[in-house]
Write a structure and sequence with these properties.
By secondary structure, the chain is mainly beta. It has 2 domains: about 90 residues, no CATH class; about 60 residues, Ribbon (Tumor Necrosis Factor Receptor, subunit A, domain 2). Helix content is about 0%, strand content about 25%. It has no helices and 18 strands. It is rod-shaped.
Length: about 190
């Protein structure tokens, strides 16, 4: 009959004596399986940096803004940041899919963010894709058009300058950017 190890210890495979019991390594904790004490891996999205743990609850959560698919992780070094243009508000994220995309009309330049940090495109610009990571992803309204709204998601938000006005610039964010036509022009 195999020896039963005390809490925080487990027998290696093929060992039967109580003095064969060893502390569970970092990244694992001891648990009883069929009356034998075994070391169980901390699940993905969690880590444990100390030895001799005896509870699944000893495994610490992966932080928000990050995810990890590794089991038996011994440090936060296994966690990956959500990339720029994405964020993850929850903890213990086990898949990259836990990282949420910035919405259309918004972007963010840094990775590893917890709460929605996404910034709206400026007036005179729009963005019709999700997960954007740079202000330069926002497209400018064409010449002769303007858009006063921020965070616009479609070129349709770019309005024509009023009759008798024009603009030779792109990215106009206000109707006042449209200038009066010179006398004799329309």
């Amino acid at each position: 009959m195999p020896a039963v190890c005390t809490v925080k210890y487990a027998l290696g495979e093929g060992n039967t004596r109580e003095d064969d019991c060893t502390l569970c390594a970092a990244g694992t904790y001891s648990t009883i399986v069929e009356s034998c004490s075994v070391c169980q891996d901390c699940p993905a999205g969690k880590y444990l940096d100390s030895t001799g743990s005896d509870e699944a609850s000893d495994c610490d959560d992966c932080l928000c803004g990050k995810y990890s698919i590794a089991t038996a992780a011994t440090s936060m070094d296994t966690f990956q940041d959500c990339v720029a243009g994405k964020y993850a508000p929850g903890t213990s994220n086990v898949m990259e899919s836990a990282c949420q995309l910035c919405a259309m009309g918004k972007y963010y330049t840094l990775g590893g963010q917890c709460d929605d940090p996404c910034v709206s495109c400026d007036a005179g610009k729009y963005l019709n894709t999700t997960g954007s990571s740079a202000a330069t992803d926002c497209e400018e309204c064409n010449e002769g058009k303007y858009s006063e709204g921020v965070g616009s998601i479609s070129e349709d938000t770019c309005e024509d300058c009023l009759a008798g006005k024009f603009s030779s610039e792109i990215g106009n964010g206000n109707e006042t950017d449209c200038e009066l036509c010179l006398s004799g022009k329309y």
